[in-house]
Amino acid sequence: MGPGGLARLHGLFAAYKPPGLKWKHLRDTVELQLLNGLNAGKPPAPEQRVRFLLGPVEGGEEKELTLTATSVPTLTDHPLDSMVRNPRVQPAPALGSVRLHPWNEVTTWPRPILGAASFIEERDPVCFFPVCGPTFTSLKVGVGHRLDAQASGVLVLGVGRGRRLLTDMYNAHLTKDYTVRGLLGKATDDFCEDGRLVEKTTYDHVTREKLDRILALIQGSHQKALVMYSSLDLQTQEAYEMAVRGLIRPTDKSPMLITGIRCLHFAPPEFLLEVQCMHETQKQLRRLVHEIGLELRTTALCSQVRRTRDGFFTLDDALLRTQWDLHSIQDAIQAAAPRVAAELEKSLRPEPGTQQLPGLGRPWDSKGPSSGLGLESCAGH
C-alpha cells in the first residue's frame, strides 16, 4: 500500500464498541488491523532521484565523456540496504546434517568455525536471507469521548491528522444520545446489575405518569443550568433563536448537562430511557437511574448504557467488529469527511449578534446540577 492509501486514512470514523470490551483494546485492535492492511498491500514503487552519471557524448566522434542527468531509483528501502544499515540476517534452515556459519559469518567458501574442531566442507550449502521489516510499524489512532467497559455503542476514533478533529469535537460541546435501561426494586453498590446487592424494595406504586413527571423536572432543571453555563443574554433575538433551535452550548467545561430525557418503554420492573446530554460519564448516567428510583420512593439500578449518537456520528455510521479493516475504515473516513467539516464549522462558528453576560454566577456548586438531580421541588410527588 503506497502513500496514497495512507493519505486516505487521515480523518474521523466511528466504531461500535460491544459491552465488555475496553476502549483501549478496541483502539489497539483497529491500529493492528490498519497496519496489517497497509503492509499486506503491494509495496510502493521506489522513489526516483536525479544522479549525474558519466557517459559518452552522443554524436561525438572522439571518445569523450560527459555528465548526464539521469533519473535512477533510490535504494534506501531496498532489503540489502536495510541489511547494511540494520543487520538482521537470519540463516536459511539447515537440511540434514548441514551446519551453518554464525550469523555474522556470511560466506560461501570453506573456512574454520571459531571455537569448533572441524571445517565446513565446500559441498555444504551455506546461504543467508536478508530480513527487511514491515514498511509501516506504527500508526497514531486517537479516541474521542470514551466508553467504559460495561457500556456499548458509538465510539469515535481519529487516525493521523484526524486526531486534531477530536479536539475540535470536544471544544464544540456536542450532545450525545444514550439509551439507558433501568430495573426497579433493587439497589447495588455501583448502580450496575452485576454489583453487590444492598437493598430490595417494592415498586407497585410506581406508574408511567409519575416517572414522566420526574423526567420533566430533570429536563427543566438541566435546561436552566445550560442557559446559565452558556453565559448568553437571552434578551437578544439571536440568543432566543439559538435556544429554540437547541444550539445553546456551555462556554467552558461544566458538569453533566441533560438537554432531553424521556421514557421509551415502561414495563415494571423494567423501563427504558432516552437521554440526550453532554459532559457526561457512563457512571453518572447509572447514578441518574439510581436517583430516579429514589425520587419514585423506591430503588433502581442500571442494567444497560448504550450510546446511540456521538455528535454527528450515529449507529448507522459505526463499523462493526467484522468491518475493522483497512478498506472499510478508509471508506468510512472518506464518506464522513464532508459532513465532519461542515458540522464542526457550524458548531465552532459563533452566532452573529449573540451577547454574553460577563461574570454571570452559577447557581450550583462544583458538583453541578446532577447533584440530587435538582429535584428539590418534587419532594412532595
Automatic annotation (TrEMBL):
Pseudouridine synthase II N-terminal domain ranges (all copies): 138-282
Positions of the UniProt region annotated as Disordered: 348-381
Coiled-coil intervals, chain numbering: none
GO biological process: pseudouridine synthesis; RNA processing
Single annotated GO MF: pseudouridine synthase activity
Matches recorded under SUPFAM superfamilies: Pseudouridine synthase (SSF55120)
Family: Belongs to the pseudouridine synthase TruB family.
PANTHER family in the cross-refs: PSEUDOURIDINE SYNTHASE-RELATED, PSEUDOURIDYLATE SYNTHASE TRUB2, MITOCHONDRIAL
Name under which the protein is recorded: TruB pseudouridine synthase family member 2
Lineage per the UniProt record: Eukaryota, Metazoa, Chordata, Craniata, Vertebrata
Name of the gene encoding the protein in the UniProt record: TRUB2
